[in-house]
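Workshop exercise sheet. Pairs work together: one partner reads the sequence aloud, the other fills in the structure field after running the prediction. Swap roles for the next sheet.
Pair: D.N. / O.F.
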Amino acid sequence: MNYLDFFKRQAKNFKKDYDNRFFDGEIYSHNNPKFFADIDDIIVSFDIDEYKPFTLMNAQHIIALLAGFNRWESLIHSDEFGLELGKLLLEHRNDWINGYNLWDDWDNTLLMNNMRNWDNESKLQYFKERYINK
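Structure field:
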């Protein structure tokens, strides 16, 4: 699988859903998002100012954050293991584990187990064992 193409497509899809909103006189609302059903939660979680222009570059940044990267540049320069892990994080971001959403549980796992400096292959293997292949 070409992970970079996947992430580029996700950024474009996020922008499409973001652009498919309307102002009802008080707030912005979305008309049945096609790709990101949780777009309103993402907008709130990442404190996106809906009154400022939103570009594809902004969408790429949000996708990178959802995939566990601090910026798009880090995502596009990651190895295959990091990209596969990012894809899984993005796809499973709304799964629930032990009362937490998977993304938050994974972030806590990295922090509590001092795993932030692990190589991407080891992180991916641990992630799959803990969340995917259980």
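Discussion prompt: The chain has a mean pLDDT of 92. What would you look at next?
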